[in-house]
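User: Predict Class I SAM-dependent methyltransferase's structure from this.
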Amino acid sequence: MTEKHGHQHHGKSSRDILSADVILKAADIKKGDKFLDAGCGDGYVSIEASDNVGSDGKVFAVDVYPDSIDIVKNEIKKRNLKNIEAIIEDITKKLPLNENSIDLALMSNVLHGFVDGGEVDQVMSNIVNVLKPGGIFAVVEFRKIESSRGPPFHVRISPEEVGNILKKYEFEVVDSQEIGEYHYMVKGVLKK
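Assistant:
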C-alpha cells in the first residue's frame, strides 16, 4: 500500500478513540453475517464482531501487516474463537475470499490512504467482488477537520467524497452519520 502523505498506518488501532461496539452498531452487524474487516489493524473490531455474528457467522480480519495479524491470531487463540479467520493480504490485490460471499464489509480509517495512494479503484473492485448482491459496505473515516488525531487534514476525505466513491462502484448510499468525536460512517448497499 502506497502512503504518499507520510502517514503510514502499519496496522495501527483506533480503539482508544472509537469503540468497536459503536462501529458495529452503526454498521448494523447481524447474527449469521459473513463479515469482512478490510485493513483490520490489531483486529479490535474483528474480535468484537465475532461475538456479534455468532456461531453461524464468520469474520475475516484482513491486513497487509504481519505484526497486526499476529496480534489478531493471538487474541483469537487466547479467547478460543472459532468463527474468525485472520489473513495477511494486501487489499489492493485480489482478496482470498469467495466471490459474492460477504454480507457486510467494513473499512475503518483506511480508505483515505488508498485514495491518496491512487489505489482506490483496485480496493473497491476487490470489495465489490466479495460482497453479495445487496451486501453492505461501511466506511469509517476521520472527519475532515483539523485535529491532532488521525491523518493530516490534506488527505482526509469527506462523507460526500466517500459517497461518490461508493456510487461509482454501484452502491446506493443508505446512511451517513457522525460516530464518536472524530469519525463518521458512510454505508452503501451493493446494487449488483
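The radius of gyration is 15 Å.
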